[in-house]
Design brief:
Elements: H1 3-12, E1 17-20, H2 32-36, E2 40-47, E3 49-54, E4 57-62, E5 70-76, H3 80-90, E6 104-111, E7 117-124, E8 132-134, H4 139-142
Antiparallel strand pairs: 1-5, 2-5, 3-4, 3-8, 6-7
Length: 152
């Protein structure tokens, strides 16, 4: 087995869950990609992250502050290796040069209202000095700067 495939499979083995906070959520145009592959909704939760604006999309960055929370949805992926590869393409992840991609995929702790915690993959913005901080806990309040139907 080639090293890149092996490392990619072992990374995926760290979690078969995905946390989404933007246009992959229910009611948004990219949610069809989760539905099509039978991702199972596990609940609404929060991650410790801050909202940033990177034109034209808002996104999250990991945060050390317990006051920074981003709301989203947690899903169980049926075929994580295949689904994450497709979602990486959709989210314009650049594995070779992460800072040049639109998003980077990282593991994050997700807390559900029940107090349960899960480790899941999510898509963060790469940290860039041009981003401005947004004060909101949800995507609908941050909103994309372009109409929903125009998003990827």
């Amino acid at each position: 087995m080639p090293a890149s495939r092996e490392s990619s499979e072992s990374a995926v083995a760290q979690s078969d869950k995905l946390f989404v906070y933007g246009s992959l959520r229910r009611g948004y145009p990219l949610h069809r990609h989760l539905r099509r592959h039978g991702a199972r909704f596990l609940g609404v939760g929060v991650i410790q992250a801050s909202w940033r604006q990177q034109y034209p999309y808002p996104g999250a960055l990991p945060s050390d502050s317990v006051f920074d929370k981003v709301e989203g949805e947690l899903y169980l992926l049926r075929e994580p290796a295949r689904q994450l590869k497709q979602l990486d393409e959709l989210e314009e992840v650049n594995s070779a040069q992460p800072e040049k991609g639109l998003y980077v995929r990282r593991l994050v702790k997700v807390r559900l209202p029940t107090g349960q915690q899960h480790v899941a993959w999510t898509y963060f913005l790469p940290n860039r000095p041009t981003q401005r901080r947004l004060i909101t806990g949800g995507y609908t309040a941050a909103g994309p700067l372009v109409p929903k139907e125009k998003t990827r």
